[in-house]
Amino acid sequence: MHPCFVDNDIFIVVVSALNRSCSAITLLRKRKEKVTRHPTITTESGRYFLTDRIREEVDFWATRQSEGIRPPPVQKPVPQNSKIIPLPDRATWSIPPCDLQTAIANRESHRRFTAEPLSLDELAFLLWATQGVRKELHEAAVLRTVPSAGCRHPFETYLVVLRVGGLAEGIYRYLPLAHSLVFERTVESLPTHLTAAARGQSFAGQAAVTFIWTAIPERTEWRYAEASYKVIALDAGHVCQNLYLACEAISAGTCAIAAYEQTLVDNLLGVNGNEEFSIYMAPVGKVAK
Ligand SMILES: Cc1cc2nc3c(=O)[nH]c(=O)nc-3n(C[C@H](O)[C@H](O)[C@H](O)COP(=O)(O)O)c2cc1C
Question: Which of 10, 88, 163, 240 could form a disulfide with 208 if both were Cys (CB 3.0 to 4.6 A apart)?
């Protein structure tokens, strides 16, 4: 039927729907062009990354470990005169027992948090669950509460603290060897900066604390050279899953974030984006029952 015979309101609805789908198609075309023009990553190279073919090609006799070079430190050094905050440990914290089956069954992504702060006990528990040290083997390796390819543990954990009992708002870093925090810096309008760094995902700025993991690839490269990158990404998944499960024990919730502004997050943490860069983040807060 010709549009002039259709009721005017219906006509407007149909035309605006058509316009919306045309703009969506244009957007999709633009997005597709952007992807296919990418200078280095193609579908082929991306899929190759997900396979383990690299292991057939890397010369493991030529890695830094095989050359007898000392391993990088398992934990990023702490600048002199830093403010260190010791954390409660398993013997002293008060965390209610939590049935593992229940935690696994209830785990879900949470993007709405209450205004209730986390206690220092709860934060200490989440840090232990995600990167806590089980055993120090030697200077090159510590066993933790999560697995890691070759026991290389390439991550540092930064915290953007907004509401944690006993801690001032600011950026902190976890020191797994001493189960402590080091205070990194204060940032004006921190929730606003955090939300922008999370590509406008506003639940980050509303969380009590946001975990941001950086990778120091050299730790894994020392043993695996170019075969490091896939396993670093796999390692990150284990860390975040433990955070999800641990949150279940303390009436808290989290949501993994992989969509973030690389430069904004790296600048917020004060890392250089090359030897160390952010790889994953997860805002945490109390959730309504
Ligand atoms: C690697 C990864 C990246 C994710 N990135 C985001 C993100 O940037 N923003 C977001 O809101 N959710 C993100 N999520 C959460 C997923 O959307 C969520 O896990 C999925 O919808 C399934 O819901 P569930 O976790 O409640 O089972 C991410 C999850 C994973 C595992």
Answer: 163
